[in-house]
Structures are given as structure tokens and as C-alpha cells.
Amino acid sequence: xxxxxxxxxxxxxxxxxxxxxxxxxxxxxxxxxxxxxxxxxxxxxxxxxxxxxxxxxxxxxxxxxxxxxxxxxxxxxxxxxxxxxxxxxxxxxxxxxxxxxxxxxxxxxxxxxxxxxxxxxxxxxxxxxxxxxxxxxxxxxxxxxxxxxxxxxxxxxxxxxxxxxxxxxxxxxxxxxxxxxxxxxxxxxxxxxxxxxxxxxxxxxxxxxxxxxxxxxxxxxxxxxxxxxxxxxxxxxxxxxxxxxxxxxxxxxxxxxxxxxxxxxxxxxxxxxxxxxxxxxxxxxxxxxxxxxxxxxxxxxxxxxxxxxxxxxxxxxxxxxxxxxxxxxxxxxxxxxxxxxxxxxxxxxxxxxxxxxxxxxxxxxxxxxxxxxxxxxxxxxxxxxxxxxxxxxxxxxxxxxxxxxxxxxxxxxxxxxxxxxxxxxxxxxxxxxxxxxxxxxxxxxxxxxxxxxxxxxxxx
Length: 460
Known about the structure:
Elements: H1 2-21, E1 37-41, H2 64-82, E2 86-91, H3 99-113, E3 117-122, H4 136-150, E4 156-159, H5 169-182, E5 192-194, H6 196-199, H7 203-207, E6 215-219, H8 230-241, E7 248-252, H9 270-285, E8 288-295, E9 304-308, E10 311-314, H10 317-327, E11 348-349, E12 355-357, E13 370-372, E14 383-384, E15 390-392, E16 396-400, E17 405-409, E18 419-420, E19 426-428, E20 431-435, E21 444-447, E22 457-458
Parallel strand pairs: 1-2, 1-8, 2-3, 3-4, 5-6, 6-7, 7-8
Antiparallel strand pairs: 9-10, 11-22, 12-13, 14-15, 15-16, 16-17, 18-19, 19-20, 20-21
GO molecular function: hydrolase activity, hydrolyzing O-glycosyl compounds
InterPro entries: GH (IPR017853), Glyco_hydro_5 (IPR001547), Ricin_B-like_lectins (IPR035992), Ricin_B_lectin (IPR000772)
Family: Belongs to the glycosyl hydrolase 5 (cellulase A) family.
């Protein structure tokens, strides 16, 4: 009898061992990240800064109490207008352990007190931007302070670095595993490890045994390619995730929200097809999305605009609905009544390889145009209308002036009529669109056509 019992126990133990070894057999599915439904709250200058990072709507002049009150209002609007439950905030050594840190903590504290998950991520300075930690000693001291302050707060998550493109996979795994060892009292489930490159692939970090138990983060943007079909974007995105979607948060992804795109139309445009694919993958793999940005003043990708101290206005209902679809908040494919608007394309100078740009995302009539690094922003998206106007932001027209080319309210006047010609010139009745230089900030004017490279433009 005893030998029979022992044999039965051996069989049962063998069965349990086998089922444990087979994915999905006799075991619960792994947890997913789709409870991260969030937005980035960003500095208007971008989060690459060699001084304090100050998210839009906040000020270094404010004390803790004032910052807390402002943050409560903005975070409340993220919840009300976007149904968000997660905030991603930047940090750097100039913002931690400093005078601003005493106030900036209020934004973190207010978000956590509101029940939001808070992802804190390190950005390098704008005078480096080489994808590597700027100052290892300052970096370590910064994280020691942040972890000491928030390691016991279950709402706060730690992302050692944003977009570590300066490191090889082995270097990055070494740096992050050292970070984990240094902060061994932080649960691995609250550590978010960026993918390699521009956070654009998580398969390497996902396979690293040193990083087991951590979350992963992925970045993915429409300006990385020129595809105009959802199928092409799906083929682009899925290999970046591999089998690690269950532990990955897409903590940066975004599209222009201020230029009139209809995100209910998925095909035929880079950005609408891109966002359709991104949200489809997130929905089918139950991945979290932290949109870039929820609020960043002057950014055409910003999902909201601040119209009062504690009042945010959604910039694109169709874009918001598409994000909700990806979050799993809508049961059916999102639909909306927004009319489709031409997306526009950049005007890229042949001589400079830079684009005609509206400085600072200004919408003010009379703003003079210049050249700037091409970034697919709404302030570089020019639509040629049936009336031969070049419009930006859907309601401002490129206008040929005597001393500068500006944006003005569209009137149909002759100085707002342009021809895009086979010889790559862009002409008005006054002459050829001309770049007065090749560097960022070079003025754009109209001059007599002479066939020079500074009068040649491409639409790409």
C-alpha cells in the first residue's frame, strides 16, 4: 500500500512539473501592463535640459504648496479629459536635491496622492544628447535621493534612463543591472528598463536574465518611417516587441494632434496608419501606453492644451478616441465625426536638408518662417490646397512679404498663392522661395529665381 501511494505521488509530482514547464498549461497567464493608461507631462523646451526640468504649467518660482495645488488641477484634468491613470515625469541632476526639488516633489506627490502611477525617468542634458549618462557621479547621487524619497511609495516607478542609444546591449544591461543592485530595496516590478537604441527594441533587454522581473519600456513614432498603411506599421512594430509585450509599457508614442488629422481614417497617411497599428498591437497584447505628450506647451503632438490654471482642452477627439481604443476603454473600433483634413508634408531644402518651420509653433499672424531640423511637427506640415495655398495648422497661409515669408490668416490674396514646380522650385508672383543660409534659424524669403540650390525644395 505504501509503495502504491509513493508511486501515485511520484506520478502527480511529474505531472505538475511538466505542466509548469509548458507555457499556459496549468498556470495563470502572466500579468499584463494595460493598467498603465497614461501621458507624459513634459517641459515646453523638451525634457533634454542642462538646468531644471519644469513641466508645462509649473514654475520654479512656486513653493511646494503652490506646485501641489497646480499639479492636482492638471492631473485631475488628465483623469477627467483623458481617463488617464499614469503620469511619466522627467528628472535630471539639476532637478533633484536642489531648490526646485523641494517644489517639484509636489507634482510627484500630488499625482501619487490622486491614485496615479508615476514613472520617473532620467533625461540627459541638451548639451550632450549622446545617449549616455552625462555624469555618472551626479547620476548616482540623483537616483539615491529619488529612491530614498519614493522607494516605499507603491505608486512610483523608476526608469533608469530615457533612450539609451549610446550604449550597446551589453553595456546597457551592465548599467541597469548595476542600478538594480545599488537599489536592491526597490521591487523589480517597479523598475522600468528602457529598450535599446531610442527605446525602440525590447527583445535584447527582455532576454537578459539580469533584468528578470522588471518592466520594460518601448518608444515608437510615426516619423521613423514613411509607411501609409496599418499593415506596414504592424510589420514594423511587432519585431521590436517580440515575445515581451506582457511586460512592456509603450511609454512614448504620439502623433500630430493640432493639424486636423482624422484618426478614424487609418489608411493613406503616415500618422493615422501609424497610430492605428500602435493601438491595435497595444490592445491585442494588453500593453500599456503612456502617450507623448499629454501636455507640453507648443508641441503639435500634445494631446491637450492648457487653457486655464486647471483646465485642459483636448486637441483631437479622434486622436483621443484612438488612444482609448488602444487602452481597451472602447469596445468597438473608434468612430468620430471629425472631417478628414489634409495632413500636410514638410518642405525640405535641398541645400540645407532642413525644413521650412514656424518658429516656436507660433500661430500668430506675421510670424516669419525659418529653417529648422526636420521633425515632422505640425509647424512643419504644409498642405497645398486646391487654391494653391500652402497652409499650416489648417488655417494659416504661407505669405510672400517684401522682406520675409510669414504666416498670415488665409485670405485668398495673390501673395498667398504658390506653385510647386517640376524643377523643385516653389514660386509666387514675387519670385522663388529661398533659404538665406543652411543653418537652423536661417531666414526664408522670396527672391528672383536663379536656379541655385537654396531655391530647391522637396516634399518629403
